[in-house]
Amino acid sequence: MDSGQREQLLVQDWLLTPEGADVLRSLSVNDKQLMPYGLLERPILPASTHLEDVHYKLIVVGKGAVGKTSTVAHLSGRTVPDVHSETAGIQTTKIYWPVKIAHLNKKVLMNLTFWDTGEVSSKKFDHIFPACKSELDGILYLFSFVDKSSWEELPNLIARLTEPGDTLATTVIGTKFDQFAHSEVSQRDLRNFEKRWQTTVLKISNVPTCDDSNGLGAIISLLNCICNNLLKRDVLREERK
Fold first, then answer.
1. Mean predicted confidence (pLDDT) in 77-95
2. Which of 3, 103, 211, 212 measures 20 to 30 Å from 195, CA to CA?
3. Residue 229: its pLDDT value, please?
């Protein structure tokens, strides 16, 4: 597989086709947000479509109050908290996301489990971070556009959580993008970071939209990107064998 194929593994507009839209509809509430699922629950998909299940574990990291819990809530169809409160212990959230892999012409149901832990808890209890890293597939690094220190902390955070030879799928997300007019992170900062780390910085607002029809539209590209990064990780692992 050449580098271009490896960078973009998904058929990006598959969810806009009748088949993809039908699958997404079965996973959503009134086509406005994803249906929340418990850890032991599984969605009922259209009988006409077969999707292979693949399971991934991801942790969500970043400075306290950047919006880790709100981001996971937004992506999973849960209520976004109005005010910040420290996450106690470990919180796990299940998200099912359908994709079509271009080079395999195969449809897959990405079974994503997000692990979120509060900053205080992870420092207080020694077992929390090792539990999060066990059998890990990917990391979501979060910062807030209106908190420069959370942005400046990213390089050290990435260096601390990755080791030479790691094949973890990494995704960087900037939160509170709705407050971009007050952003403490410049466009030059973003460009330099993306060039250095060879990644794209994603953006999310985590506020209710006035236009409900954009509910799912606001998360499609973001979840597609997270899934594409996980699949790229799988391809790289296979190529190294």
1. 78
2. 103
3. 96
The contacts found for 65-68 with CB under 8 angstroms, 24 or more apart, are 65/144, 65/147, 66/142, 66/143, 66/144, 66/147, 66/150, 66/175, 66/176, 67/142, 67/144, 67/175, 67/176, 67/204, 67/206, 68/116, 68/142
Q: The tokens of 145 are what?
A: 């556009």
Closest to 169 in 3D by CA, of 203, 148, 129, 200:
200
Find all residues with CB under 8 Å of 216, minimum gap 6, and list them.
24, 28, 31, 32, 33, 34
CA distance 199 to 1: 20
Q: Are 215 and 27 in contact (CB under 8 A)?
A: no
Q: Which of 173, 175, 193 is nearest to 183 (CA)?
A: 175
| 3-state SS assignment for residue 17 | coil
Q: Determine contact, residues 107/100, Cβ cutoff 8 Å.
A: yes
Band of pLDDT at residue 154, cut at 50, 70 and 90:
very high
Distance between CA 32 and CA 178 in Å, rounded?
A: 19
Contact at 8 Å (CB) between 142 and 61?
Answer: yes
| HSE-up of residue 96 (Cα within 13 Å, Cβ side) | 23
Contact 28, 20 (CB under 8 A): no
